[in-house]
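Reminder to self: tokens first, then the designed residues, so the page reads top to bottom the way the pipeline ran.
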């Protein structure tokens, strides 16, 4: 997400940084480009106006024009204003400060990912906060909606309210809260019905449920891919219900990203969580400062490290490091490494969390990274015999043809993988030979293969 906006803003900032001195005209021209980039990314017009006004007030003052590095100062001001627009520093947690069972009401339009998000939230509260969670579907509109939530509850390892045909949403809500009290649940998540569009019947139903259950949280689930429509939806629900928080789904998608920047300003409600994938554990805290960093091309290294810590097997990583140090790294180890990396998400999402990731991606061919690349490489290695994985030199022409046929790729793909492995092995051998002092003295360029070293 944000690729287009990040690319445009990075271009503006690069031009500002390249100038030793800035005058007011330079700053105003940059602000015009930033305004167009934000509008193109589907940020709501009132939000863009307010954003530019705040940046202008600070950027045309002596603070910037008279500073030692004015371009960098403008970037900092834009970053500070963007963090404020996204909700300020720090995460806003889910409010569980109420008498148990704490009701959490999930609302939103049909197709926003509300039911899946309910399951993700249940898993998160169960795993991270050790809460006893009850999931209850109040959706009597959509066929099999209640069954879908029941299946999500089973996958998450939490309880779901037994389905009783013929009950109204209000009756289901009352039964859920009663079950929560009797069976001593900490949290009851109430998944309401959605509609294809906002209408009076939908709002009346959720207002009645809210009045009857008095939830500690009324969370609006919106699809980040819908852009301006997501902002319109958020305003309508907030006006009717007074939502306490927003969950944005499909934040890993290819959207322009403007909805995230508009939400806080339009509704006053914080974005609390974001959906970052289809898996049940792909629900993360919303960090305004980290998202601002990613939008402005500064990356989110802290988030990347946290993600790695969550998914990478420490013992396996240490074993791999020892083999690398000894120079006994083989294709089986390479496959293990690919699996560890793939757990962290797509190559695009990982690259997006690195400083300058958008530029790196553009330099790699101005094309989107192939999301199936790592799976294809795993398939190639899986098609090899154990002996071939341990000794790639065995892979001559006939064996390569067999491996290619077995993994559904071309021989050129097999050769490409073996070349990558060979480059990696060469680099490891150089690192071992040089040692830490040699590496510090000669720099990273000494590890590069001949012909690829920077001049």
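Designed residues (455 positions):
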């Amino acid at each position: 997400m944000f690729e287009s906006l990040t690319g445009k803003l990075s271009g503006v900032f690069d031009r500002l940084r390249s100038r030793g001195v800035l005058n007011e005209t330079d700053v105003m021209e940059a602000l015009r480009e930033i305004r167009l980039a934000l509008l193109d990314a589907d940020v709501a017009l009132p939000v863009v106006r307010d954003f530019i006004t705040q940046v202008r007030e600070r950027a045309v003052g002596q603070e910037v024009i008279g500073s030692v590095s004015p371009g960098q100062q403008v970037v900092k001001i834009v970053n500070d204003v963007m963090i404020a627009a996204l909700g300020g520093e720090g995460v806003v947690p889910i409010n569980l400060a109420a008498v148990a069972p704490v009701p959490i009401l999930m609302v939103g339009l049909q197709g926003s990912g509300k039911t899946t998000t309910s399951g993700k939230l249940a898993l998160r509260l169960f795993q991270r906060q050790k809460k006893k969670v009850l999931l209850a579907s109040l959706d009597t509109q959509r066929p099999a909606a209640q069954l879908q939530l029941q299946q999500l509850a089973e996958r998450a390892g939490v309880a779901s309210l037994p389905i009783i045909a013929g009950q109204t949403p209000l009756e289901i809500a009352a039964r859920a809260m009663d079950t929560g009290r009797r069976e001593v649940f900490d949290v009851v998540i109430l998944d309401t019905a959605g509609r294809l569009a906002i209408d009076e019947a939908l709002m009346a139903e959720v207002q009645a449920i809210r009045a009857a259950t008095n939830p500690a949280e009324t969370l609006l689930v919106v699809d980040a891919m819908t852009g301006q429509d997501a902002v319109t939806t958020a305003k309508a629900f907030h006006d009717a219900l007074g939502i306490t928080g927003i969950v944005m789904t499909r934040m890993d998608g290819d959207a322009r990203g403007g909805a995230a920047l508009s939400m806080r300003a339009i509704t006053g409600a914080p974005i609390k969580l974001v959906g970052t994938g289809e898996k049940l554990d792909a629900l993360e805290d919303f960090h305004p400062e980290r998202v601002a960093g990613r939008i402005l091309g500064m990356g989110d290294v802290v988030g990347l490290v946290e993600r790695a810590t969550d998914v990478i097997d420490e013992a396996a990583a240490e074993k791999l490091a020892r083999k690398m140090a000894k120079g006994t790294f083989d294709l089986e180890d390479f496959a293990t490494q690919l699996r560890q990396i793939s757990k962290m998400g797509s190559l695009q999402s990982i690259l997006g969390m690195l400083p300058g990731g958008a530029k790196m991606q553009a330099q790699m061919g101005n094309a989107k990274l192939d999301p199936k690349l790592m799976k294809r490489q795993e398939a190639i290695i899986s098609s090899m015999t154990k002996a071939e994985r341990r000794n790639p030199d065995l892979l001559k022409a006939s064996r390569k043809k067999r491996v290619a046929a077995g993994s559904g790729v071309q021989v050129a793909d097999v050769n490409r993988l073996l070349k990558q492995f060979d480059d990696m092995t060469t680099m490891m051998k150089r690192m071992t030979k040089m040692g830490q002092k040699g590496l510090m003295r000669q720099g990273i360029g000494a590890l590069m293969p001949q012909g690829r070293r920077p001049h």
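Residues 93 and 139 are 26 Å apart (CA to CA).
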